Amino acid sequence: MTPKPTWTDRLIDMLVDPVCAVDRDGRIVFTNAAYQALLGYTDEELLGRRMMDLIHPDDRDATQAAARAIMAGVPVHHFRNRYLRRDGGVAHLMWSARWSEADGVRVGVARDMTEYAREEAMKSLAADLAMAGLDASPLADGWQGIRSALARHLAIPAVAAAIRAGSRSRVLTGGAAAPADLLDRLVHARLDTPTTFTSADGGRWWCVPLPCGRAEGMLALASPAVPPIEIDDDVLGFVAHQVGAVMRAKLLEEELAAAALHDALTGLPNRRLLVDRTEQALARADREGTMPVLLFLDLDGFKLINDRLGHAVGDAVLTHTARVLIAQVRDTDTVARIGGDEFVILLDGSATDGDVEDIAESIARSLQSPVGDAPPVPAARVSIGSARYPLDGRSLAELLDTADRRMYLDKARRGCAPAGTAQA
Question: What is the pLDDT averaged over residues 383-403?
Answer without folding.
Answer: 95
